[in-house]
Amino acid sequence: MARTPPHDRPNTRFHGRVAGTGRVCAEPGCDQPGEFRAPPLEGTPPGRDGPAEYRWLCLDHVRAFNSRYNFFNGMSPDEIHEAQRPYAGWERETRAFAANGADRPPRWADFSDPLDAIGARFRERVASERQRQDGKPLSGADRRALNVLGLDQDTDRRGLRQRYSELVRKFHPDRNGGDRSMEKALQEVIAAYQHLKSAPAFA
Q1: Residue 57 phi, psi (nearest 5)
Q2: How many CB atoms lie under 10 A from the CB of residue 151?
Q3: Do 85 and 16 reside in the same domain of the chain?
Q4: pLDDT tens for each residue of 29-64
Q5: Number of domains the chain is built from
Q6: Do the domain assignments include residue 51?
């Protein structure tokens, strides 16, 4: 059986792409989907003890941002040299925490997180613990199923049905020239929908 050329398949081809969220590109005047995240232009707001929110850009604008990005921007030659040393940052003094848990943890501003490794996990944890605006409960399994469908946790039953229909049409072999490479994704979508349609949040 002939296989569909890779460039014609309806799967994600770009690393870091988050599709189907309904976000619009944050670049002024652009109405394309915002599917790629980038740091905020203004950095972390003063007084905020946590990472700043991402900006979401379309493919063209995130490419433009990446082409302009310079980690060493604003550094002096000596600071650049210091940052490039193999052991840069490891000489910092650290303090021990109290064994009884009474010691206050360090502030967000005390960390250096140039690759956003800590910030990304922080945002994921906050998002995973946020409750629905209507107060209906969400279990861990509910949240995982919503993630499979690419849905926000405040989605209602109508939005759930619409997204399910959209993804079934997208992944079904009949809509892809008989290509069965998306069957696993289709099965995951069906299982997630079957779980959520009987969950209390969508009753």
Answers
A1: -120, 160
A2: 20
A3: yes
A4: 999 999 898 887 766 556 666 666 788 999 999 999
A5: 2
A6: yes
